[in-house]
Amino acid sequence: MNILDRICHDKREHIARQKRLLPEARLHEEIVLCLPVRPFAGALKTKIAAKQTAIIAELKKASPSKGLIREDFNISDLAIAYEKGGATCLSVLTDEPYFQGKDDYVRQAKAVTGLPVIRKDFILDPYQVLESRALSADCILLIMAALEDNQAHECYQAAKEYGMDVLVEVHDEAECERALRLEPDLLGINNRSLKTFEVDIETTLRIARHVPRQCSIICESGIYTADDIRYIETGGVYGFLIGESLMRQNNLEQALRALLHSY
Questions:
Q1: Could you give phi then psi for residue 87, rounded to 5 degrees?
Q2: Which of 1, 30, 102, 145 has a CA positioned 20 to 30 A from the CA of residue 196?
Q3: What is the spatial distance between Cα 34 and Cα 189, in angstroms, rounded to a whole number?
Q4: Exactly one of 58, 83, 175, 244 is catalytic; which is it?
């Protein structure tokens, strides 16, 4: 069993527990009180259409491959720093066992900024989509490597019903072909294999050639410098999701500004 299989196995058990603790009827009540949806895809597409660098800045405390990434993790302070640094959107990890995330981080990040927020987790069930909207998320992540086609379609449609955007993530051409059947607005190309955790930023440029123009591409993983960004942009990709390299910096605002304005 690889790490992705193990995470998904544990996640299914977690979902079953959550459904007992917080039934869907309760979540529908919470949605009435949550913050309105902000245009996640719209914010990215506006910049990408103008060939401007659009960064989804990620709030990630730890990961299975790197362990603890940032010990000092005040979600509100970090979110504000990202907004001041020029982030287009925020990504918030909520998986607790493997990433030390918390569901409430989504609410906190959205409450202190004006930025759209994606809940980044292993979404396997429409229940989690409803849960994400109740947390005030504007967008969810669907990882094709973790989903069968029917599951992806069901979760995608659920997100649209709640007015949310969807970032569909792929790592290879076969996953890309499956993802494009959903006709997504946003396609994330993860340069990291979730099965081996090996990273190759050429993955984005290779797969981008198969993506129709109306679908905006987000390059994920392995981006550390302005040179990395410049290289990917030569292939016509202007959207980026950046987490670890920013999280390791003392001053997030300055680090993000450096990525955006050093060329």
A1: -60, 145
A2: 102
A3: 30
A4: 58
Q: Which domains does the chain carry?
A: 3-261 (3.20.20.70)
From the candidates 169, 191, 193, 216, give the one annotated as an active-site residue. Answer: 169
Catalytic residue among 190, 191, 193, 216: 190
Q: Catalytic residue at 233?
A: no
Selection from 212, 208, 214 nearest residue 190 by Cα: 208
Q: Please list, in sequence order, all residues whose beta carbon lies within 8 angstroms of the beta carbon of residue 11, skipping any fewer than 6 positions away.
A: 95, 121, 122, 124
**Catalytic-residue membership of 161:** no
Distance CA 77, CA 226 (A): 24
Q: Considering just the CA atoms, what is the radius of gyration of the chain in Å?
A: 17
The interaxial angle of helices 3-21 and 126-134, nearest 10 deg, is 70
CA dihedral (127, 128, 134, 136) in degrees, to 10, reads -150
Does the active-site annotation cover 120? yes
Q: What is the pLDDT along the chain (263 residues), one digit of tens a residue?
A: 788 999 999 999 999 999 999 999 999 999 999 999 999 999 999 999 999 999 999 999 999 988 999 999 999 999 999 999 999 999 999 999 999 999 999 999 999 999 999 999 999 999 999 999 999 999 999 999 999 999 999 999 999 999 999 999 999 999 999 999 999 999 999 999 888 888 999 999 999 999 999 999 999 999 999 999 999 999 999 999 999 999 999 999 999 999 998 64
Write phi, then psi, for 178 (nearest 5 degrees): -65, -45
Q: 190 an active-site residue?
A: yes
